[in-house]
Specification:
The chain is built from seven helices and ten strands. With about 210 residues, it is an alpha/beta fold. Helix 1 runs parallel beside helix 7. Bound molecules: the ligand O=C(O)c1ccccc1NCC(=O)[C@H](O)[C@H](O)COP(=O)(O)O. InterPro entries: Aldolase_TIM (IPR013785), PRAI_dom (IPR001240), RibuloseP-bd_barrel (IPR011060), TrpF_fam (IPR044643).
């Protein structure tokens, strides 16, 4: 079963709904974003979440000490870096699952991942849109992501994924995981119950088909 992360969680009802439907991980954005959540609210959301759901903090070129403090305070289990963080920077967080994101426009962009393969736990491939670091709502060619799969570090794909294209994304890229933000929102930072339910229904129907 593909690992599913629902990103841009800002409130308890959305977090609980995503977990009850089957999310494996929730993302809390501490980088500049319309989905940014403050650490106190993130801590309140996280403290009642199931133990086995990963709580991933999303940061962009943040001071190492600030990341460590927020991670400890909120009870994060993973850290996702969306900026120009170096491989050396990524090695400062041994207690946490570290995800480095790369914005993809063309196949050559995959070369940027090479220096990180020994320093991170997961690689996230997201869509390149000028001046938009994440949450673009736009897809990139998933055939490119397929070339990164099997490269030694599990691959998550992100960018413009929703209920109507998630199974195709999985079929084409064959990733370890899928990351979804705006595709299950009614507005930035607020999840849409119907879109979320439809997403998991679609994913589950694929699993049923696979095991028939
Ligand atoms: O989502 C944001 O607003 C965001 C802003 C700044 C840095 C990272 C951000 N999101 C990180 C994610 O993991 C998103 O889920 C990912 O970019 C996919 O977004 P979407 O295209 O909306 O599904």
């Amino acid at each position: 079963m593909t690992w599913i992360k629902i990103c841009g969680i800002t409130n308890i009802p959305d977090a609980k709904l995503a977990c009850s439907l089957g999310a494996d991980a929730l993302g809390f954005i501490f980088a500049p974003s319309t989905r940014k959540v403050n650490p106190k609210i993130a801590q309140e959301i996280i403290k009642d979440l199931p133990f086995d759901v990963e709580k991933i903090g999303v940061f962009m070129d943040e001071d190492i000490k600030v990341v460590q403090e927020i991670a400890e305070y909120c009870g994060l289990t993973g850290l996702q870096f969306h900026g120009k963080e170096s491989p050396k920077y990524c090695k400062n967080f041994a207690k946490y699952k570290v995800i480095k994101s790369f914005r993809i426009k063309e196949e050559q962009d995959l070369e940027k991942t090479n220096d990180y393969l020994e320093n991170v736990d997961l690689i996230l491939l997201d869509t390149y849109v000028p001046a938009v670091p994440g949450g673009t709502g736009k897809t990139f060619p998933w055939e490119i992501a397929r070339k990164q799969v099997g490269g030694g570090v599990p691959v998550i794909i992100a960018g413009g994924i929703n209920a109507s294209n998630v199974n195709k994304a999985i079929r084409v890229a064959s990733p370890f995981g899928i990351d979804i933000g705006s595709g299950v929102e009614s507005e930035p930072g607020k999840k849409d119950k119907e879109k979320l339910s439809k997403l998991f229904k679609t994913l589950n129907s694929k699993e049923e088909m696979r095991y028939e």
